[in-house]
Model the fold of this input.
Amino acid sequence: METKENICFQVNAKYSEDLAKESLEWITLITGDDLNTAGDMDNFYEVLKDGTLLCKLVNTIQPGIVKKVNSSTMAFKCMENINAFLDAAKQLGVPPQETFQTVDLWERQNLNSVVICLQSLGRKADKYGKPTIGPKEAEKK
Done:
């Protein structure tokens, strides 16, 4: 039977610092915020953990999609922000299998899934007149 530590190691082994860096650079392009865009796990987590930047991102893509952004650093308020971002990402076209669970970010359980979600959202941004990241999405026929 696999331990939780071993599972976390396997998940974290998939994490790409290059894609994380690309995601953070894209967020700065969209929001205009001056962020540390280093792709290492520690920085990626610190920049995104409270969910406020994620909410600002989706509100910049589609104004008003997240009605209330909590500025409090209390755990449940930060998790509300992350949940609001996830709901907005789905509304903006990110498929459920490319989103993440709140604990993946808040408890740092699977930062790779956060990168996947941001990359997916980045591919959808052109539909809202915003710059994109990653490969162009295939057209559905």
